[in-house]
Structure formats: structure tokens, C-alpha cells
Amino acid sequence: MVIKTYSIHPNFYEIQHPLLLHKLSILRDVSTSTKSFKELLNEITMLLVYEATKDLPITSKPVRTPLETFEAPMLAGKKAVILPILRAGIGMVDGFLSLIPSARVGHIGLFRNEETLQPELYFLKIPKNSANRHFFICDPMLATGGSACETIKRLKAEGVTKMTFVCIVAAPEGVKRLAKEHPEVPIFAASLDRQLNERSYIVPGLGDAGDRLFGTK
Ligand code: PRP
Ligand code: URA
After folding, report:
1. Residues 6 or more apart from 195 whose CB is under 8 A from it?
2. What's the CA gap between 202 and 199, in Å, rounded?
3. CATH 2.70.98.10 applies to domain 2-60+75-214
């Protein structure tokens, strides 16, 4: 896969691959059904996870093949945690679990306070003893970056030090905000889109990811 980087963030990676580009174009299409949207989101997530997990540490343990016993490479450390941001992040969980079936799944729920315009936490459930686990935060959309920054802040308050943010579409505004507030957290995305519009939607984007995933509009 080709990995494109940008000067606006030291750890932002746009994953480019013909299959991914094709699937993303169909995902964006306004005429794509809820069923197809869900399937494509799952498939694109798998392709992103392959790259986003490339630096996971490896250890070894003896494995007996039919011919001999040898030191076989295995994932090291405590089981990773997938943390979808409700609601739309839920659509990426199965894609993660297809490749990391032993991962734990936490949940974080945020809503935007319409007076302060700040994201407010309404739900957070993560495994006990999370400090030494690698968290993969997932949300299809990185728009203003408000939800992502609040999530990372909450995880840091819980003692989490290893995090990766995986999204489908990112806006430069949100990527810049993450670069300022949490530059050490890598971001893997299928596309860095052009900009936010006046309603803070990503353009060209794919619309409201939660509504398209759950058919609520
Ligand atoms: C969307 C999206 C992100 C957030 C991104 O969720 O799934 O969580 O907006 O915007 P930000 O970068 O400006 O914070 P939304 O609030 O629409 O909730 P939903 O998933 O329940 O539809
Ligand atoms: N949330 C969405 O679902 N879509 C956007 O374009 C921006 C935020």
C-alpha cells in the first residue's frame, strides 16, 4: 500500500490502495444503500487496520509444527482495546475484530453541548487495568477534531499512553487540531478531504456517517 503523509501533522497517514479508493468512492455515493454502507465501512476498516497495526510489538513462543518445535512470532503484551466513538464508530468494530479477534472493546459516547459547542461525555466503559493496553480509537469522521481530542484526553486521564486513531475521512481542520493537542497519537485515514463546510461537515465527505450507517434519516 502507498502511505501518504502531510506537513500539517507529524503522524498522519493516508492509506492509498486501489481497492480502498474504489470502496471509498462507493461509500461516499449518496445513492449507496444502508446495507452497502455498512459492508463497505467494514471492508475499508479492515484495510486500514492492516496498516494501523503494523508497529504492534512481537514476541515469540515455542510452537510445534508437524515437523519440529520452533520459536514462533506472536503479538506481545496485553490485549489491545478497540474504542468506537458512539455512534458511527460502532460500524468499524467488526472490521477491527476480523483482524484482531482477541481485542477488547470499550465504548465512549460524546454529545456536543449546543451552548458551549464543546463535546460532553455521557458514556465511557473501558477494561480495568487499561494503562498498559494499546487503544485503537475508531470513528469514520474526523471533522473539527472535538470528539477525537476529548476522547484522547479522557484516555490519558485513565493512564493510557499507547493510542492510535483510525478514521475513514479526515478534514484538515481536525487533523491540525490533533497535531496541536496530541501530536504523538498517530492517525490512519482513507482520505484527507478538502475542508469543513459552514455546518462543520466534511466536504466532499460522505454526509452524516451515523445516520447513513444506521438508516436514521
Ligand atoms: C460524528 C462523527 C464523529 C463526530 C466528528 O458524530 O461520527 O463522532 O461527528 O465531528 P468532530 O470531529 O467535529 O467532533 P455525530 O456527532 O454526528 O454523532 P453520531 O455518530 O451519533 O451520528
Ligand atoms: N460528522 C459526520 O457524520 N459527518 C461529517 O461530515 C462531519 C461530522
Report:
1. 171, 172, 173, 202, 203
2. 9
3. no
Sequence-ordered list of residues with C-beta below 8 angstroms from that of 216, at least 6 positions apart, any chain: 210
The residue nearest atom 21 of ligand 1, judged by CA position, is 87
Active site residues: 112, 116, 208, 211
Question: CA 147, CA 135: separation in Å to the nearest integer?
Answer: 16
Q: pLDDT digits over 26-59, tens only?
A: 999 999 999 999 999 999 999 999 999 999 999 9
Q: How far is the CA of 209 from the centre of ligand 2 (A)?
A: 6
Cell of 17: 490502495
**Distance (Å, whole) CA 40 – CA 43:** 5
pLDDT digit string, tens, across residues 169-205: 999 999 999 999 999 999 999 999 999 999 999 999 9
φ/ψ of 43, rounded to 5, equals -70, -40
Q: pLDDT grade, residue 217 (50/70/90)?
A: confident
Domain locations in the chain as residue ranges: 2-60+75-214
Atom of ligand 1 nearest to the CA of 87: 20
Chain centroid to CA 38: 15
- The residue type at 93: V
Give dist(CA 213, CA 41) in Å, integer: 9
- State the average pLDDT over residues 93-119: 91
